[in-house]
């Protein structure tokens, strides 16, 4: 059994207040349009939203910013980040980024931020209507990849340590960490089951097979790509919002001195993958649209042994063409 305790909300806030000295804490705050990861201070400590669902920004927005200089001295944050309220669909994206930016040619910028950061995840209880984690093999509560996880129960949280760094955060706070009693454990199980039911209910019109690789293998020539990409305006929001998309471009800029910039690229753009001679392997929009689905479901799975889609629904929420990935995948099964 993992190490877990019950902690009251007030006592948890006191712990957070203490950690602020050492960490830059970022947590979900509610604004028009959704939840946004924002710096935490004593002024907004009480308005952190722990249990709803994912924030608008994926974690990559911090670990691998949309645009950054990769030459010269870098202005890194003064304190390491402590990300609070990260959801299961955010955690399951990280092994993709870790592998893409790790290994033999590891990216030092990503690695530094990733290794210094702490992640305190939390269970979801109010999924967005675009959430479909359960449809794609996930759960709305984290089971791995966190330093600490919080599950809101009554007037406090069940806090679970998932790493040595997470355990270290709790050390010395025995006076506020209580044994989880049977009723609290039962309340947590009930809440988790209810959340799974909510997500299943809102996705009941979609049926995806367990073997998505097989589904993709027979779908290259499907009409689905042309039909579902008809309203695509090539804005790239689906790529940029996605927690696992990690393609980038490099641009050399000459100002007073040479600067190299790195920015998020998007495989939906017509310029993506264009060669120096002007050729492209995917001249048609439906081919680029198909590529994104194949990348998520097939190529990333083959390369990194995990799906490149976590069911977070950001690509649905942000799509200017009102294209729904669930519907497109579902149509492939017909
Ligand atoms: S997709 Fe699942 S894990 Fe992600 S925010 Fe929605 S309910 Fe939570
Ligand atoms: S493809 Fe869409 S639903 Fe899947 S992880 Fe990316 S943004 Fe989320
Ligand atoms: S978000 Fe929608 S409209 Fe924009 S590129 Fe992606 S599929 Fe096309």
Please describe what this structure looks like.
The protein is an alpha/beta fold. It folds into two domains: 199 residues, no CATH class; 121 residues, no CATH class. Helix content is 33%, strand content 18%. The strands form two sheets. Strands 1-8-7-6-5-2-3 form a seven-stranded mixed beta sheet, sandwiched between helices. Strand 9 and strand 10 form a beta hairpin. The longest helix has 21 residues. It is globular, with a radius of gyration of 21 Å. The model has no long low-confidence stretch (mean pLDDT 95). Bound molecules: iron/sulfur cluster (SF4) (3 copies). The site of one iron/sulfur cluster has 13 residues, from helix 10.
List keywords for this structure.
334 residues, alpha/beta, 3-stranded antiparallel β-sheet, 18% strand, globular, binds iron/sulfur cluster
